[in-house]
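# nightly structure sweep
# worker-07 picked up a monomer target from the shared queue
# config: single-sequence mode, recycle default, output format = structure tokens
# input follows
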Amino acid sequence: MGHPNRPMSDHEILMSLNDAVGVSPPSFDVPPPPLSKGEREYRAFQRLLPQLLTAHRGKYVAIHEEQPVDSDADDVVLILRVHARFGYVPIHVGLVTDTPAPPIHVPPYRLYLPGAALTEDSLEARARRGSRKKFEAALKTVPDVAPEEFDRLPPPDAP
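# output follows
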């Protein structure tokens, strides 16, 4: 029965009518929705992994129609080749390894509204909060190492 201070829900009304009449509600066997093609391909990859380990360990394998169709050491090259062959259809590309992949950290979403955060007033307020002391403290947390080759600046006299 419902609470005396609130109206009964439709479900509560039906259950009370069923109790009064002595009839049980009908049961429905609703099948689960079919899996998407991408989910089927992923499950096929997981199912085939033991066999894939023997011939493709350390490579990426593309699964299409629940079968391995190609492999490569480069996942992007593999995806482009498989899509060129079968069209732009859902496939699964997975690395064949017996060690699970580490979890992927996705940073939290931040809303950026162009112009809202970068007004002249907001930039001036941020500048007032800054100081040489804070800047030098932040620099102390950065390792003092030579930059990678791709990050190096050309010499001043280079064209």
